Amino acid sequence: MALVTSGSRAYRTLQTRSLVAQARVRRTAVVAQAGPNGATAPAAAQQAKPKPVAAPAAKEFTNINRFIVPKHVQQAFIAAWRQREADMQAQPGFMGFNVISDGEAYTVSSSWASIPEWEAWSLSEECRRSHLPQGIWQFVPKKGEGFPEDFVPFKDYDEPVNAKY
Q1: pTM of the entire structure?
Q2: Which residues have C-beta within 8 Å of that of residue 106, sequence separation ≥ 6?
Q3: How many Å apart are CA 98 and CA 40, to the nearest integer?
């Protein structure tokens, strides 16, 4: 028999056929791992799950408004802000509230965990229902102070009135 006399060649042929068979198995495995567009990826990359990307930390936001409040409306002004503070405490992201008075000049600030949480408050039914008394004036917020109060006339127009984060 020829196989007996050329055993090493027969072995090589079997080894070659074995490698060809192994390559077919590998190709089948790779095709099974291929993505929908036919692209292939190594098995280790397929099994490794991507690490979730952490969202950037929300930046805290403090909205500051400055008012001129004549003496005859100061009690109504303070009462309106007390009610607002109670309403703000029920809102997610509310961090604090402060009213500073110097005669007729008042500075009111509210601190929030993020701008979107302050915006949610400013669009809430509670905020929209609360109005400050007539007879007060507000100053245009400086850059970085936040947003002016709705429905309160301005004392100065030296700079444009717009949202200022």
Answers
A1: 0.60
A2: 66, 67, 68, 69, 77, 99, 100
A3: 60
Q: Quick one: 2 exposed, middle or buried, by C-beta within 10 A (0-12, 13-18, 19+)?
A: exposed
Q: Which amino acid is at 97?
A: F
Residue-level pLDDT at 35: 55
Rounded-to-10 torsion of CA 122, 138, 136, 124: 0
Question: What pLDDT shows up at residue 69?
Answer: 96
Positions in the chain whose pLDDT score sits under 70: 1-57, 158-165
At residue 152, the pLDDT reads 84
The two structure tokens encoding residue 44: 């280790």
85-89, long-range: CB < 8 A, 24+ apart: 87/124, 87/126, 87/127, 87/130, 88/121
Give the contacts of 111 (CB within 8 A, at least 6 positions apart): 60, 61, 62, 94, 95, 96, 97
139-153 pLDDT, tens digit per residue, is: 888 877 888 887 788
The two structure tokens encoding residue 36: 């929908």
Provide the β-strand partners of residue 107.
Answer: 66, 100
Say how many CA atoms lie within 13 Å of 84 toward its Cβ: 22
